[in-house]
Amino acid sequence: MKISTKMVSSRKIKTSNVSICAALQLQHALEAQHNQQECAQMIEDYVQWGGDHGLTESTMREACGLPLRDMREISNRAHAIIQVDDDDKDVDKDPDKEWELLRKFIVSHVLDLRRPDITKHMLLRLKVPGGPNLTKENLIKELVNNKILAETPARGKTAEVYRPLLACSNLQTVVAFNDKHREMVFPENLQARGFVEYVQGCPARRENAFVLGRFFCAAKSSFLRGRPSRTDAGVLDKSDAYQERGRKLLEQEKLFDEILRELTKLSGDPAPASTQESQPAKRRRVKSKELLKVKEESDDVKPLVQNISVADVQETLHTQRAYVYSGEVPFRSRRTVKGPGVQKFCRRAVVHLASKSVDLDVENSVFTLMYQLIEKLTIRPPPPDYVKETLRQCAKERDRVCREILKTSKADGKSKLIKVFNGGGIPSSEGAAASFFENMSRVSIYCRWLAISCFPDEHARFQQPETKKKNPDSSILSYFYHSLEDFVLSAAADYLLGQSPKHLSLHYDGVRVSPAESETTEEVCNKLQEHVKQTTGFDVVVREKVHRTVLQIILDEATSKRASVLSPDSVLRGNGNCIPAAVSLLLKRTSEVEQAVSRAPTRPSTRSYRECEKLLDVNLIPQLPEHDSTSMQLQPGNFLLHMENGGTPHCVGLYVPDDSSLEITVLDASNNISIQTSSLDSALRDGLDGITCILFHVTHDKKTDLATHLLGA
């Protein structure tokens, strides 16, 4: 076929029914003149050379001075067989720039959807502005080849799912992620005698811990019936949170036994023997109907170590602890202590075991460090402005965000923001709060993409069943943040170790260190901030964190405080009568309760809730905490609040008025306190012993199956 000069000058190839008929005739003539083998060879030549040795549509268009056909809105080649596009477009674009613009568009689009990934069907329907001149089928393949998208495991019935990839060129320069070969050894100064008194001083403390631990391990919502549905997700989260709470309580008691054995050895005495029968019962999944047996099973639970004499333990013991990386990931993460170091203990134990140290905390560490990291990294594409602004507000104005946007307490807002950042669901909210949580969800998605893009091999490994990672995306983000956190804390620990402290232990978002002899704590914090800035380039605020029990916070936050109406010589002021005292004050039955207590055959130093039920002729219904914290959603009525209270369990009465704008009244044998609901909520969340708190509804109603039988606690 010869292209005429006229055809070239017209810059247009005409199509008509006649030309189509001519093409079909040519095809018939070709097949009539060539056998099957020759036709097969022609096909091979077409595959190898792109047509008749290079004579393709593209070369034809180029020879005629026509632009290449725009294939970007065509899903596959079959849809473009008979289609003429005469638009004259600029074909001299920078291909690298086109790919980067496409990366930015896809990231922005998927973030707008608040999705961590996008399906192939969604990509085929997506109208992509600009980009390489490819069919959408080929475009998806090239997006994967150019590391703009990555295939991700299928979800549900959708087989082909893709996740946007980010490019980062200076990660190792900003944070030394690969520096994980140095073991750190710190001195620990243990207040052994005070810790033994906490663990063993009041036998009811341990018994309560075992009862509560078994109760929460057994707790399941009664709403789960048959096949789970989407509406069950929140209920499943609550059940998991209850069981995790129970496991923490039981594991801490087991750890207490381990350190008691070590303290005994360090004091020079042989460790008390333990028997197979004395070990705590193994945790097992328990059905709701077995909740009735929780107390009875807990009666058989004994500590691994029998009580030891406080006098046989030295008041202060010194030891050395090594901190190492877990080895679960090939890059640095959190350092964990070898053996029963102070790091492993819960706060309510640490304040006794390391009472001669101060807790130096990096304020708002998650958002402070992640915001600065995003600012320092060279990421393609960079996060959208609203993502950076949301992260900035959480880093620099978190208290204002909680107060003015989320309309909640600092403790509640902090908990919810962290949960959403780690990939959790968005809490129920309206207006500005709902919009802010949605943007925080987008921040989480972007940060997860960043972590996955930086460590794709580890993310792929987390997706394997043997790793037991329920949410690989959130897991890799956690390790990513832990690396950053350790980078900063290691610098802080190096500085403090150079001051030769008697005690130093790492506690993830901060450190515990013995007080400096010649400097105030504030001066130490300021020098620590300067050293971290010079060493790592990150700005942090270090402050001493003061730990208080739930009852201490209630007393400190009270809006009014009056003496109890009980007479000074009332029997209800005696040891072991805090439950009867609280009930009598709530129900205004002081005289009647005093008589019932006086007639009791024994005067125990502690009383169980079951015993008080019978003694006072009331029903005490345990109330499970809402969400994954100790915060209670209080309804109007009378309640008892049980607390560990620093090792001496205590109970107070709570009167919640019908008008939610009014304050809650807190009653015990010593005080009559008024407190705002938000302050009580903060006390339950922030208190050292918040995990041990349980609420009992004081009523004459019949108990439900779920409400059994903590009452031996």
Offer a quick outline of the entry.
The chain is an alpha+beta fold and 713 residues long. It contains 26 helices and 19 strands.
Description:
Among the domains are: 62 residues, no CATH class; 192 residues, no CATH class; 150 residues, Cathepsin B, Chain A. The longest helix has 34 residues. The strands form 5 sheets. Strands 13-18-17-16-15-19-14 form a 7-stranded antiparallel β-sheet, sandwiched between helices. A 4-stranded antiparallel β-sheet has the order 10-11-8-12, with helices on one face. It is built from 26 helices and 19 strands. Strand 16 and strand 17 form a beta hairpin. It is of the alpha+beta class.
Features:
alpha+beta; seven-stranded antiparallel β-sheet; 713 residues; 12% strand; four-stranded antiparallel β-sheet; Cathepsin B, Chain A
